């Protein structure tokens, strides 16, 4: 049994729920120049949901550069999900 602190992010999991993917797709639709492919996700329950996605990245340049990033997304109870930070 795993215990999680209230208000803390969960451990990362490679099992990304459909709800998490919906929030990711909705938030990332306006991001251009880099393709982000989520590999794992960590969640935090707030008034809505905070997600941290560990992603593989590829730039949309003549000579693509591959990398990784942590994409933080907030999914409110009502309204669209949006990116809060990319690291």
Give short descriptive properties of this protein.
87 residues; mainly beta; four-stranded antiparallel beta sheet; 4 strands; 13% helix
Please characterize this protein's 3D structure:
The protein has 87 residues and is mainly beta. It has one domain. It contains one helix and four strands. Strands 1-2-3-4 form a four-stranded antiparallel sheet. Strand 1 and strand 2 (48-59) form a beta hairpin. The longest helix has 11 residues, at 18-28. The chain is globular and about 45 Å long.
Q: Sum up the overall morphology in one term.
A: globular
Strand-pairing-aware structural class: mainly beta
Q: Please trace the helix and strand order, writing H or E for each element.
A: HEEEE
Task: Report the C-alpha radius of gyration, rounded.
Answer: 14 Å
> Helicity, in percent?
10-25%
In whole angstroms, how far apart are the ends?
31 Å
Q: Which range does the strand content fall in? A: over 45%
Largest sheet: 4 strands, antiparallel
Task: Strand order, main sheet: write it out.
Answer: 1-2-3-4
Q: Give the tally of β-strands.
A: 4
* pLDDT < 50 runs, ≥5 residues: none
What count of structural domains?
A: 1
What is the average per-residue confidence, as pLDDT, rounded to a whole number? Answer: 93
- How many separate helices? 1
